[in-house]
Write a structure and sequence with these properties.
It comes from Clostridium saccharoperbutylacetonicum N1-4(HMT). Helix content is 28%, strand content 25%. It has 427 residues and is α/β, with parallel strands linked by helices. The N terminus is likely disordered.
Length: 427
Amino acid sequence: MKKKFIGMVLSLSIILTAGVIPGKPVFAASTLNVDCGTTIRGVTHCASGSLYGITESKPSDISQIVAPLKPNVFTNPALAGSQNQQPIGAAIPVAGRLTNTTGKVMIRLADIYPKWPYAFTNMDDWIGKVTNVINKKKASGYSDFYGYEIWNEPDGTWKSTSVSFNDLWLKTYKLIRSLDSTAQIIGPSYSYYNHNRMNDFLTFCKANNCVPDVICWHELGGSKNISNDIKDLNSLEKTLGIPAKKISINEYCDSDHNAEGQPGASAPFIAKFERNKVDSACISWWWTGAPGRLGSLMASDTQKGAGWWFYKWYGDMTGSMVNVTPQNDNSNGVDGFACVDSSNKYVSILLGGVNDGTVNVSINKLPSFIGASANVKVEKVDWKSKDTPVSGTNLVFSKSYPVTNGTINVSIPNTNNTSGYRVYITN
């Protein structure tokens, strides 16, 4: 009995000493390594765009709401109306609204047809409708188009028994090349990446000289698979003898679609897109009653949400993107992306993701303009829901760090999974 009591006291002592609550899992602090000396590429804001995020009238103020995000690509229906898949948001008028921004429009041709899966009729009808869209696009005089996405999620929406998807792809590819020869052709736009399916598609395309200019698929289950999916595609291209193509992930979202546009969920996506040099990526659109909200970056038609402020930080990035290494590239855990601007003399690091509350950021090979002492400002933007307006960002702390061998270590306590953070460094 005495021996058992001693054991209980010892166990309790260990628990109290460690500061651990019985039954609660113990996690190590998350770490992130930023290598300011390794440039990935110039800033592109590749992931700043959305699916149906802009319509003919929403958001109403392009100059104040859209332009500051330095948007890249928006995916919009080729046509909109009662006879089409989407009632509003047609690509050509949206392109007209974006003429004074960095934004470009990807034309989703499949949205010519209504219903879900799409109510495809026959090839003659399809070719006539696509020809009409191409002619309208060319006649518009707008130049801010990213290209034509031939079909959307054929792995689930191609139901024709008289025409194969490959036949549709080949004939549409040839049509676009004949009518709009310099336009980018985008596909296959699968609902998720699958090695065998992509291999079959690219094998057909290689054999029939119809490889897309931009290879596209969706990542709607979180960011954990992105890097491996891209590595697999790169391997397929080498095996098939296809020169590396641009990549577009024109629908991306956390597996919990309520987190669409959430800063904490968005950070690992953007980090992996930047690290893998993705050409474009669009936030998804799960809220069918609310198009025109930039993929839930807006809390309403006129009010900014937390996501808007996080993507504004992203839009503010200039100079060159540099390498960031997370603890686990194949997870939804803490990840980040960073830029160095030697002209404006700053380093900006954005981060977020699933974490235990403390994130340690090791920043190495700081540029010489930072000097012997780095002024560091850490800010955050908090999120409650996609419909909750947010008025701005908040300062976590601001302090000076001595630079040792080009390195500083910044520890951010009390972080959470839904907020986004910025580490901003000047001399």
